[in-house]
Amino acid sequence: MMSEIRQVGTERVKRGMAEMQKGGVIMDVVNAEQAKIAEQAGAVAVMALERVPSDIRAAGGVARMADPTIVEEVMKAVTIPVMAKARIGHIVEARILEAMGVDYIDESEVLTPADEVFHLEKSQFTVPFVCGARNLGEALRRIGEGASMIRTKGEPGTGNIVEAVRHMRMMQGQIRKVVNMSRDELMTEAKELGAPYEWLLHIHETGKLPVVNFAAGGVATPADAALMMHLGSDGVFVGSGIFKSEKPEKFAKAIVEATTHYEDFALLAELSKDIGTPMTGLEISKIKAEDRMQERGW
Amino acid sequence: MKIGVLALQGAVREHIHLLNQAGAEATAVKRAEQLQDLDGLIIPGGESTAIAKLMNQYQLKEPILNMHQQGKPIFGTCAGLILVANQVEGLTEPHLNLIDIAVKRNAFGRQKESFEADLSIEGVGDNFTAVFIRAPYIERVGPEVHILAKMDGKIVAARQGTVMGAAFHPELTDDLRVHQYFVNMVKDSLVANSLK
C-alpha cells in the first residue's frame, strides 16, 4: 500500500498548533500535581517551570531552563500540550526541550537571556515557538525569525496587568495604523518600527498578525483575563497568578470560564466571588529599570 | 441555512470563514439558547478536555443531543471528533456519544510529530491537504459507520448518518471542499426534515 507523505514542522503545522489554543488559558506549573489541577480546571496547555516568575523575581540570580526531570514529570501527568521556556538565544536549551518532545517552546524574557544581541532562528526547528513582544516591530521581528505565536510581555510575576494592557493596546493600535496607511508609506514605517517589510505588507493586506497573539505578564484575576480578551487577545497566559492565589483550583477554573465568556459581565461577577485573595501585586514604578523583564529581548 | 460553530475554545473563526464561503450563514455559539435555531453544528479543533469541561459547565450537552435527535448534522474536527465519539481511550465515559467509533487521543504523537499530508476523502475528492495537529485517529468503527478517509492505514474521517468526524483540520487550509460537503449534508437534512 502506498504511504502518504507526511511533512512535519511546516509553518502551517506550527502556527496551527497555536490556533487550537485560541480562547483558552495556558497556566504556569512547577510539578505534576499543579499540572493536573490546571488540566482539571480546563487549561488548554501548561508551561512547565522550575519556578513561577514571581519566585524567579524574588530569588534573583540567573534563571535558566527548568530541570528536564520537572518537564518530563509534567509531560507524563497530563494529556494537554506542555510548553517550556528556554533562555533568549540559547540554541542548546531549545534543542534539548525539542528533543524531549515538548509541544511548544517559549523563548522567554522571564529567564536570563543567553544572548544579548540575537534571538533564536526559530524557523530551523520542528517544534513551534512563542515569543514575547511589546509592540508591532518586536512581534514582527520574532515572526521573521520563525515564531509561530506571539504574546505580550507584560511585566511577569507582578500580578499587575498594566504592562500587558500597554503592550496589547500598542500592538493593536499599530496594526490599525499600518492597515490604513497608503502602500508607499510602508517602507518608512518598517524602518521606524524595526519590522521586516514583507510582514508589514502582510498586515497591510490582511489586517491582522499572521500568528495568534496571546496576553501574558501580570494577569492576576478573572477580570484581568476578560479585560485582555476585550482588548483583542486570542487567549491568556497566567503565570504566577494561579498558584500564588489562596484557592488555586477555584481560581484556575474561574479564569478559564472568564476567558471564554469575557463578554458576559453578570457571569464575570459570579466568577469573581469568593475565589480568595489573588497574589499580592507589584507597582511597576517600584521595580528598578534593570529588574524589568520586559526590557529583555531585542 | 444557519450553521453554528461551538465557540468555547479553539479554531472558531477559521470554520466560520470557510462555512460562509461555502454558502452557509455561520455563527459562533457559546450558550445553550444560541443552539436552538441552528440547522447544523461544527465542533472545532481545540483542546478536547477544555471544551468538554466548558460544555458540561454551561449545560450545552443536552441541547446538542437534541439537535442530533432532530436530524440536524453535526461535524467534529480533531478535538470535535473526540467529543462526538462513543468511546475515547483513557476515558470511562464518552462526551456526546453521537457516532459509533472508538477514538485514540494524540494518536499520531506529540507536536513535533504533527504533520500535513495529501489525503483522498470519499465524497470530497483527492489531494486534500490535511493538517494533523497532535491528532487522534479512529481505532474502531461500528457497522453503521462509513469510513471516509485513511492515513497510513489509520481511519481519520468517518460518517454515520448526519454525524461526521475528522481527525485533521480542514479549517486550516483554504480548500473549501470538506466544508462544502458538510454544507450539503445540512441542505439534505433540511429537505429530509421538511418531508417528515
From TrEMBL, chain B:
One of its GO terms (biological process) is pyridoxal phosphate biosynthetic process. CDD domains: GATase1_PB. The keyword Repressor does not apply. Its EC number is 4.3.3.6, 3.5.1.2. Belongs to the glutaminase PdxT/SNO family. Catalyzes the hydrolysis of glutamine to glutamate and ammonia as part of the biosynthesis of pyridoxal 5'-phosphate. The resulting ammonia molecule is channeled to the active site of PdxS. This is Pyridoxal 5'-phosphate synthase subunit PdxT. It comes from Polycladospora coralii.
